[in-house]
Amino acid sequence: MPRPPAAEANDAGQDSFLDVVSNIVGIMIILVMVVGGRIHHIAATAPARSTAALEREMEGVAATVASTESEIDDMQQQVRTVAAAASTAADARLQLATAVSAAKVGLAELEQAADASRVAAAQAAVRRDELDRELAALEREVEAARHAPATTREVLAYPTPIGRTVNGDELHFRLAGGRIAYVPLEELFQLAKQRTQRHSGSLADLQSRIETVGPARDFTLDYVIETKIDQARGQVLVRSREWVVRPAGPDVGEPVEAALAAASRFRGALAQARPDTTITLWCYPDSFAAYRRVREELHRLGIPTAGRPLPDGAPIGGSTEGSKSVVQ
User: Fold this and answer.
1) How far is residue 250's CA from residue 306's CA, in Å, rounded to a whole number?
2) What is the model's pLDDT at position 175?
3) How far is residue 13's CA from residue 51's CA, in Å, rounded to a whole number?
4) How big is the chain by its Cα radius of gyration, in Å?
5) Cβ contacts of residue 57 below 8 Å, gap of 6+?
6) What pTM was computed for the model?
7) Strand segments (E) across 207-296
8) Which end of the chain is more exposed for a tag (fewer CB within 10 A), N or C?
9) What confidence tens digit (pLDDT) does each residue in 174-205 have?
10) Residue 286: CB partners within 8 Å, gap ≥ 6?
11) Domain coordinates of the chain in residue numbers?
């Protein structure tokens, strides 16, 4: 059965207290009326009665008054007792209401914790089901791999790499954007040599001068001329101090797939190679896969190969302080 709210309990206690007070006041009024009636009766019959009778009557009235006062004192004491009990009961009800409120808060917290535990358990169950499905799928894959027919794959084995500097003939190719193009360095150097020999000015005019020749097979050559006097021989040497090869466009050359086919321009350029010729591959980062395919083909043909990786945007170039290619 639900308990009444604290406020309603307090109202009930106050009503009981008011009832007691009202009863006492009513009793006092009745006693006053009784005493007054006695006195009025005595006053009305006084002439006909004797003094002794009147005294006895007065003594009875006085006894009645004393008894009434005693009863009134007892009732006042009961009223104080009831009021104290009502105050104690009100305090007890307040404490009980506070304890009930605290218990309700604790119960709500426990219910929230229980809900969170149920949610976590549900999430864990869902995750466990997912893991079970993944495990079952992996087991099926393992079983399928176990019963799959054995396959063989050809692995191209390279000899142990021992590097040596290239000193003989060298053919250069550019790998960029998945395309391979022959770089005619010897032809471009020959054109630069012819232009220098045709120079009709003084040698001082050639010093640190930038020249350009080409295009030859979609490439041009920019170079800086340097003159050097050999006093021991009494000669003036003219050479290229620095040089850079620039393609005519981003799509020079042919795709690697087409280059590895028969009758390609790549095959035609390889036809110029002698047994001691080294193939140098200048390769950009976007063509490393193409570089491996070309290297495998050159290895199959028995042609020495050197690799020159280049960062994006860097041109093919060299200088008198540069290094030679290293073939493996």
Assistant:
1) 23
2) 94
3) 52
4) 61
5) 38, 42, 49
6) 0.48
7) 209-216, 219-230, 235-247, 254-255, 278-283
8) N
9) 999 999 999 999 999 888 888 877 765 555 55
10) 176, 177, 178, 312
11) 6-115, 164-327
